[in-house]
Amino acid sequence: MSSEKITDKPEAVRRRSYEDACAAAHALDLVGERWALLVMRELLLGPKRFSDLRAAMPGISANVLTQRLEGLEEAGVLRRRELPPPAAARVYELTEWGYEAEPIFQALGRWAARSPLHDPTLPFSTNSLILSLRTMFSPARAAGLSCLIALRLGYETFTARVADGAISVERAVTAAPDATLEGDARSVAGAIYGGVPLSALEAAGALKASGDRAVLERFFTLFPLPAKAPAPGAPR
């Protein structure tokens, strides 16, 4: 019977289930285990090796990461792939269906950014920064602006393109950016979201900037954070 086929699920899906037909409940069956969503976050910008994933999530153990990768693979969210020589390495990448989850991360990020309990001083990965730029971008603030910003974040380089009230941020190198910003993700986030002056971050050696500083300073203003929700116990 067809109902028997439906219940014949992979072990990763059967392992923990809400036994609820709601699609949101099924989503939690698939990706609700601790660290699963962060593994997906780290793959939303492209394939990564096991060691790259561990470096981006310093709190996860090798054993737990292995379990999450296996579970997400069995659920059809990601797949393993062997790179040809000379790389000859195994990487993990999202499936086409897995990549469709980015709007979920954006909605969840906008919602959680309002939390009065959010601690922005905690570790912040490169993928977190790039996805936040895609999420928090304000078309209204970008009116009339057209620019290319090169972001050199550790061993990775991204290009942020702003034009016609929209933004794209992709892993790419551009030959002639309007400005270049070099540093780690947390320092860039401090300039964009924390209001830390660029000059102060440069003086501290956290960031290095070149090119059109006026364009760069305006770029920093394009990502307003939402107002915080009331703190627990605060008067209404």
Provide a descriptive summary of the structure in words.
The structure is a single chain. This protein has helices at residues 2-7, 11-14, 23-31, 36-43, 50-56, 62-74, 96-99, 102-112, 126-136, 185-192, 198-203, 213-220, and strands at 78-82, 90-94, 147-153, 156-163, 166-171, 179-183, 207-211. By secondary structure, it is an alpha+beta fold. Strands 5-4-3-6-7 form a five-stranded mixed sheet. β1 (78-82) and β2 (90-94) form a beta hairpin. The radius of gyration is 20 Å and the shape is globular. Residues 1-7 and 9-14 have low confidence and may be disordered.
What CATH architecture of the largest domain would you give? Answer: Orthogonal Bundle
**What is the overall pLDDT average?**
92
Number of strands: 7
Across the major sheet, the strand order is: 5-4-3-6-7
Uncertain runs: 1-7, 9-14
Series of H and E elements: HHHHHHEEHHHEEEEHHEH
Task: Assign the CATH class of the largest domain.
Answer: Mainly Alpha
Strand-pairing-aware structural class: alpha+beta
Secondary structure: helix percent: 40-55%
Name the overall outline. Answer: globular
The Cα radius of gyration reads 20 Å
C-alpha end-to-end distance: 55 Å
